[in-house]
């Protein structure tokens, strides 16, 4: 899902560069769907852990886990709202210079989220399984 999210966001940026509204909207919608799916998976994981008694108050690791992954989820939520705002702006105003700049800033933000998630996933899930 991570690579697909980066790919669709990148496609939206390319579509914006060539001022193709149709493919911009399709790519941004796909990115939004992937972001919302990620949030759904995160919510499901959190609820399962809490159901099993592994909530944030149980240990320092779980407290850190919920804080770190939850903070990332908040940033994905904010990014999804920003993404929907950019879709609405392009729909109503087109690819003006100020909107193009915002799209570029959004793309950088979204790719930074992806890079951060690689680090979080590696440290928490992959290295956590090894110990």
Secondary structure layout plus pairing:
Elements: H1 2-17, H2 21-51, H3 60-93, H4 97-130
What is the CATH topology assignment? Answer: Four Helix Bundle (Hemerythrin (Met), subunit A)
- Secondary structure category: mainly alpha
Radius of gyration: 17 Å
**N- and C-termini, Cα separation:** 26 Å
CATH homologous superfamily classification: Cytochrome c oxidase, subunit III, four-helix bundle
Q: Return the domain count.
A: 1
Task: Report the CATH C-level class.
Answer: Mainly Alpha
* Shape assignment: elongated
Oligomerization: single chain
Q: How large is the count of helical segments?
A: 4
Low-confidence stretches: none
Give a brief description.
This protein is mainly alpha-helical. The protein is built from four helices and no strands.
Describe this structure in words.
The structure is a single chain. This protein has 131 residues and is mainly alpha-helical. It has a single domain, classed as Four Helix Bundle (Hemerythrin (Met), subunit A). It is 88% helix and 0% strand. It is built from four helices and no strands. The longest helix has 34 residues. It is elongated. The mean pLDDT is 91.
């Amino acid at each position: 899902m991570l690579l697909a999210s980066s790919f669709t966001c990148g496609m939206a940026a390319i579509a914006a560069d060539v001022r193709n509204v149709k493919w911009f909207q399709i790519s941004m919608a796909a990115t939004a769907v992937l972001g919302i799916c990620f949030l759904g998976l995160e919510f499901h994981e959190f609820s399962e852990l809490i159901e099993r008694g592994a909530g944030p108050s149980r240990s320092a690791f779980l407290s850190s886990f919920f804080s770190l992954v939850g903070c990332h989820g908040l940033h994905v939520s904010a990014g999804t709202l920003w993404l929907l705002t950019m879709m609405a702006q392009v729909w109503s105003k087109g690819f003006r210079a100020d909107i193009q700049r915002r799209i570029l800033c959004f793309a950088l933000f979204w790719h930074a989220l992806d890079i951060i998630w690689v680090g979080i996933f590696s440290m928490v899930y992959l290295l956590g399984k090894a110990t």
